[in-house]
């Protein structure tokens, strides 16, 4: 048994916790750069939070997926303001923007310098400015991970800036902030979380601790994703999904992911498909192909049992781990993605002739190497075909 | 659902991990104060670890349970040496000494100032010097907690110095370091870990995350404590127990404990009983009294189910959560403590006439308030009586 567990040192979870934000900021400094999406900054009442605190702040709007240009502007704003702490408020994109800004403020240069392929691949060597992440969606779990995905629109390229020094100091998760998330985003971000949990749970880098946390997250998502989608005001379901997202971040950061996330990078680079949609469209197919490819090998029993255990959470009673039991989670995921009205990938222009180029990139991706089994080209094509 | 999760940001676990200690130290500085018990400093080959690193170090021997005097001498040694990082190596006592030294170096004064009742009850307000904890026993889980227990022999008093700022920066857990632990210590430290896991799991401050981790730890301890006791060279069993101890620390730090630990402080203050022996002697009795006191109340079903779930781990098959199933864990704990040759408390001079004074202190203790149910005096007496 060998594992590393890197974690956000302070996690606060619960209804109303956002009201403690002022106190948390003052642990680290008195001048805060608040990085947030426009909608998130409306959900959070900053004036109220900063009342009666010896704190000041400026806002920096992070619109859409963070680009090099956006991050560099944020860094300049933070330096100019002499910010002592960065607070990110929003979905995965805004939180990633804040995370990159907090890191680069203390390491210098442009976001581009820290990206591979198009940049210099520089390393983050100085601790980031203290970063407090406040998610307003339940999906990426970036509030507890060490990477930020940055986009260079002119190069048509997305890459992670990655360092243990980027892990937020505080994750402040208040499920009430997700009550107004529209159902479409609830579906795609929720499926992102569920996908991260399932891939981390079955990853070949998983360990007993991430397994226990992943299984808890999968249980919460199975119980509550559809409920939150159908009734966004259901606080219990929102709580469960916020917890599932948090756990998905802890698990992916420590156990890696799998083939779905191997597909996500080349598909997202070449087609305008949101990340959550890729997860939604491919998850059931990848699980099915993994199980088919694992079956002949006796050494893979441990992973097959994990797929059966997920089925146990679906049917809510003990199962006997027979071969039929592997099918329960596949059927569940197929039905779930239908009920969540997941768009097909052909909607975004993906065609069968694109498959070979995508598949070559999948096989080289960093996530795919943690998939529990190597899939052959026919299996990888099959996954894309059922998602068209 | 409301919870806080404070965690050591970097946890490294596995056989051979101790060889990375030099690299980990150099993340934080180049001058290390190594605080360790004499036996632990023999187990770890410091010369080898510090070879080829631009690091220097001094050793500071921490013998027995840390006293105010010992901590103050350690602080002076660290200041004099201008240490940039503190490394603790040993069992819970040596690790607590290192933790307190790292904290007080940056906060000034004497350990006494930070203790309640006999001291000034000062608060730790400055971050501790970076502290790396390397346990050589599997028990307290102090490598991931925020408190250090300090003793004042002249006052006959023990108290925790406690602050989130004391949480170690790194926990480096190499189960091979525990291979030479004598069976007696394996038993008492292992029962301490199991007790912490059971109390945190059934604590009224527990949350779904600590529950998942506690249940994993309980499973590991049930599978391996007796094995490690009977054959200390069994690496798998040592790994399981090191993991159980780590998880017990994470769980107690975030979910609190219960009545056993409520007894530990007054018993340990008045009689020369090692902490692990208190846990061993009282655990089965507290679980039994808790279950008896919980049964009449319908609202307590959730906690009773937890006791049944532990039974499931003992018999290794699904159970139906009927009333009889609560008995499985009680019987298991009684048999386990017999097999581990737990000494009775009368060995240390405890007599029935001491009960009333002890019980008054239990009811005021900080751990007892997290016990899942208030126990009446007869129940508390019964627990002590069966341990005599």
Mean pLDDT value of chain A:
92
Structurally, how many domains make up the residues of chain A?
A: 2
Q: What is the CATH third-level topology name of the largest domain in chain A?
A: Dehydroquinate synthase-like, alpha domain
Q: Characterize the main sheet of chain A.
A: 6 strands, parallel
Tell me the strand order in the biggest sheet of chain A.
2-9-6-5-3-4
General shape of chain A: globular
CATH evolutionary superfamily of the largest domain in chain A: Dehydroquinate synthase-like - alpha domain
Would you give an account of this structure?
The structure is a homodimer of 388-residue chains. Chain A is α/β, with parallel strands linked by helices and 388 residues long. Chain A folds into 2 domains: 10-178, Rossmann fold, CATH 3.40.50; 183-385, Up-down Bundle (Dehydroquinate synthase-like, alpha domain). Helices cover 49% and strands 13% of the residues of chain A. In chain A, α6 runs parallel beside α8 and α7 (208-230) packs antiparallel against α8 (235-255). Chain A starts with a strand and ends with a helix. Chains A and B meet through β1, β2, α7 and α8 of A and β1, β2, α7 and α8 of B. β1 (2-6) of chain A pairs antiparallel with β2 of chain B.
Give the secondary structure arrangement, pairings included.
2 copies of one chain form a homodimer.
Chain A: E1 2-6, E2 10-14, H1 21-26, E3 31-36, H2 38-43, H3 46-50, E4 56-61, H4 68-81, E5 85-90, H5 92-107, E6 131-135, E7 147-152, E8 157-162, E9 170-173, H6 183-202, H7 208-230, H8 235-255, H9 259-270, H10 275-294, H11 301-315, H12 326-339, H13 355-364, H14 377-385
Parallel strand pairs in A: 2-9, 3-4, 3-5, 5-6, 6-9
Antiparallel strand pairs in A: 7-8
Helix pairs in contact in A: 4-5, 6-7, 6-8, 6-10, 7-8, 9-10, 9-13, 10-12, 10-14, 11-12
């Amino acid at each position: 048994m060998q594992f590393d567990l890197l974690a956000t040192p302070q996690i606060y979870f619960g209804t109303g916790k956002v009201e403690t934000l002022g106190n948390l900021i003052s642990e680290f400094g008195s001048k805060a750069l608040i990085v947030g999406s426009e909608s998130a900054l409306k959900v959070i009442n900053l004036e109220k939070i900063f009342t009666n605190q010896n704190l000041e702040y400026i806002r920096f709007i992070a619109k859409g997926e963070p680009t090099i240009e956006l991050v560099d502007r944020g860094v300049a704003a933070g330096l100019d303001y002499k910010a002592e702490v960065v607070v990110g408020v929003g979905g995965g994109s805004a939180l990633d923007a804040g995370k990159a800004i907090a890191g680069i403020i203390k390491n210098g240069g442009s976001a581009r310098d820290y990206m591979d392929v198009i940049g210099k691949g520089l390393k983050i060597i100085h601790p980031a400015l203290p970063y407090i992440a406040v998610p307003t969606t339940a999906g990426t779990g970036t509030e507890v991970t060490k990477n930020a995905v940055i986009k260079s629109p002119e190069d048509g390229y997305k890459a992670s800036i990655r360092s243990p020094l980027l892990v937020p100091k505080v994750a402040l998760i208040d499920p009430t902030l997700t009550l107004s998330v529209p159902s479409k985003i609830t579906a795609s971000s929720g499926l992102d979380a569920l996908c991260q949990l399932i891939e981390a749970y079955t990853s070949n880098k998983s360990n007993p601790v991430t397994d226990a946390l992943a299984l808890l997250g999968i249980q919460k998502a199975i119980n509550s994703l559809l409920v939150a989608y159908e009734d966004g005001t259901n606080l219990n379901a929102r709580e469960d999904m916020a917890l599932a997202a948090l756990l998905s971040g802890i698990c992916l950061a420590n156990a890696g992911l799998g083939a779905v996330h191997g597909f996500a990078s080349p598909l997202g680079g070449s087609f305008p498909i949101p990340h959550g949609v890729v997860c939604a469209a491919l998850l059931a197919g990848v699980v099915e192909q993994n199980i088919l490819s694992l079956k002949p090998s006796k050494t893979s029993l441990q992973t097959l049992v994990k797929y059966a255990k997920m089925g146990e959470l679906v049917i809510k009673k003990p199962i006997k781990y027979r071969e039929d039991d592997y099918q329960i989670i596949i059927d569940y995921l197929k039905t779930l993605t239908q009920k969540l009205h997941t768009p097909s990938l052909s909607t975004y222009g993906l065609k069968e002739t694109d498959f070979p180029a995508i598949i070559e990139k999948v096989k080289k991706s960093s996530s795919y190497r943690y998939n529990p089994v190597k899939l052959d080209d026919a299996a990888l094509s099959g996954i894309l075909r059922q998602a068209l």
